[in-house]
Amino acid sequence: MAWVDLFDRLIEERLPDLRVERDADMKKYTSFHIGGSARRMVFPHSEADVAAVTEVCAQAGVSYYVIGKGSNLLVSDAGLDYVLINMTGMDAASLGEDFRLYAQAGALLSRIAVLAQGAGYAGLAFAHGIPGSVGGAVMMNAGAYGGEMRQVVERVTALYPDGVRTLSGEQLHFAYRRSVFMEEPAVILSAVFRLKAGDPETIRAEMDDYMARRKASQPLEYPSAGSTFKRPEGHYAGTMIDQCGLKGAAVGGAEVSTKHAGFIINKNHATFSDVVELIGVVQDTVYRTFGVELEPEVRIIE
Predict the structure, then answer these.
(1) Which of 37, 110, 179, 227 is flagged as catalytic?
(2) Nearby residues of 2 by Cβ (< 8 Å), 6 or more positions away
(3) Spatial contact of 254 and 265, defined as CB atoms under 8 Å apart
(4) Distance, CA of 196 to CA of 17 (rounded, Å)
(5) Whole-model pTM?
(6) Would residue 273 show up in a list of annotated catalytic residues for this protein?
(7) Can you tell me the distance from the alpha carbon of 137 to that of 156, in angstroms, rounded to the nearest whole number?
(8) Burial code of 146-179, b = ≥16 C-beta within 10 A, e = fewer?
(9) What is the CA radius of gyration of the chain?
(10) How would you classify the pairing of strands 254-256 and 250-251?
(11) Is 217 an annotated catalytic residue?
(12) Beta bridge partners of 167
């Protein structure tokens, strides 16, 4: 029996109300608007749903990959022969005492930043313009304008193969664009943020300033996955790429943005191969020029 047949049968038996999309078009689920179809995509609404789906995947002998808004993903045009767990249905967020904010993994960063701002909870303004969700942001320690998740995450609840665990901020081993979840087989379920008192109008002004700076400096008018490369120690990727004369360099429909060299954009119906090849061109050129190896920040999945 093919894994999809067994998976479908088990899901129907255990989670008959779960939304399941067959051959999900990944162009619709990634900000790059690139990718083939995922054989199955499921949309859990609770921790119990997530646990049941992972158990069904194990029984069906199929791998799974967890996504949120897909704002940092480059997906193969050949498609994905496994299960995508889409966490966007788990998007609850609420305010707590002592300037704490609780959010499920699928909650948008922009939304929780506005929630915090309205209550006078300071510390999340930097996250307002990051086009992702809590789970992905925690996993990669997302940040901008001097702020990072490690500065505000107090604890995270995640599903491991042996059950649900809650990890403190210290246990997450945050580093630049890294956390423990990049090495451990866990599904982030929710996070608690510890913020501080602030003036709502001041926080709003800070958020507006960050958004204006993003619009002025980043190619938001084109599909992309944000910054394509991580910042090398002691350098700035975009600056080196610019100094190599690579602004506007293109492979097929993929292009190094003329507005910000740190972004590869989907200029004109780019394919997965276009972007991967252009990433390689940039890496090779920068290494030959500066002796610096650029590591992709975008997560490439096949």
Answers:
(1) 227
(2) none
(3) yes
(4) 40
(5) 0.94
(6) no
(7) 12
(8) ebbbbbbbebbbbbeeeeeeebebeebbbeebbb
(9) 20
(10) antiparallel
(11) no
(12) 156
